[in-house]
Design goal:
With 69 residues, this protein is an all-alpha fold. The chain is built from three helices and no strands. The chain has a domain of 30 residues.
């Protein structure tokens, strides 16, 4: 299985706090933390599929709510 690597780059001018905030947002969007947590414990393939399915159901539900149905 190939590991996906996130190439995240932030330009730091004079405001370090702002650059740190941008870095945290990009890391969160890329899912780096989730991948690290997933690698700590061994999950059975059936558990992985179930989590993926539940995540998709939740995202679809939220998408429907945002459209105002």
């Amino acid at each position: 299985m190939s590991k996906k690597r996130a190439n995240i780059a932030i330009a730091v001018n004079h405001n370090v706090e702002r650059a740190l905030k941008q870095l945290k947002k990009k890391i969160e969007r890329e899912g780096v933390g989730r991948d690290i947590k997933r690698g700590i414990y061994h999950e059975k393939p059936t558990q992985k599929r179930r989590k993926k399915l539940l995540r998709a159901i939740k995202q679809n539900y939220l998408r429907i709510l945002q459209r105002g149905f």
